[in-house]
Design a protein that fits this description.
alpha/beta, binds ligand FNR, two-stranded antiparallel ribbon, 39% helix
Length: 330
Amino acid sequence: MEGEPVNVNEFQELARQALPKMYYDFFSGGAEDQHTLKENVEAFRRITFRPRILVDVSRINLSTTVLGYKISAPIMVAPSSMHKLAHPEGEIATARAAAASNTIMVLSSMSSCTIEEVASSCNAIRFFQLYVYKNRDVAAQLVQRAERNGYKAIVLTVDAPMLGRREADIKNKMIVPPLKNIEGLVSTEVDNDEGSILEGFAKGALDASLCWRDIGWLRSITNLPILIKGVLTREDAIKATEVGVAGIVVSNHGARQLDYTPATITVLEEQFKTRHVVHAVGGKVPVFLDGGVRRGTDVFKALALGAQAILIGRPVIYGLAAKVEYGVSR
Ligand code: FNR
């Protein structure tokens, strides 16, 4: 590649060159046939515009609000694990870039820097992503730590009752460094006869019994607003509004969980059929989207189809691996 990277694909290529194969595969890969992984991106490509002409666009304002917080553009940082595998500065560099870009960062429960370290290193608006562990006290402790450290919302991930089968990680015998955020809270001693270490960890620690009534439990232990991440159907969007969440994130976990789910933008396109999640929600709560967003035009497509804002996962990691904080900002 000649010169400075000018788009996410070029950052991805730089990240591929910078990272050991095991880590690049971990960040970039998806589950099983990676059908949804390709679809998340391709489905955006199939949408075209009908631009109207002779409209005054001399002044534009990209800012928006998310749960009342003003951000400079409708682009947030999705929760993704273990940023230190991308760069030694890890989530601290990511959070600083989020702060500089005046947007929201969602910190993963599986981050390499702790809730406290990220909070004290920058003034980004931060949300905290939660996995619920079999030991509910662990989840409760994480929520309390997030609340104490000024995180503004809990993003409950609901599409990972078990880990997706990520075959590159299995082949590479993916190594998981100690997860500092949950160090001492969850046993990471796993039997790795089959599958990746991460898969074994998830099986041992994550609570696969999590269900709708547990939203009530979560609400009982925190005053923070709760976003539910991993909604893919109209039916579940309706349920989510009924249990009192503050917003939903249409997500298939970046195609790392269940393969052959639709692309997330396809889920939003369903308004042209009859099963549209945004309509189902009826404007009661905001709808966000992540998965496959790689260009400004993708963001615009998601907004045009009803999303309030989008989140990006891999693009952030590619920026971090290639050019640290500056890369994430770009
Ligand atoms: C993720 N994602 C994720 N989600 C979550 O709720 N908790 C997590 O710890 C992680 N970890 C994670 C690691 C890596 C390496 C990736 C790529 C993704 C999913 C993430 O929040 C988001 O849904 C997707 O990344 C969005 O898709 P794109 O933008 O990567 O295409």
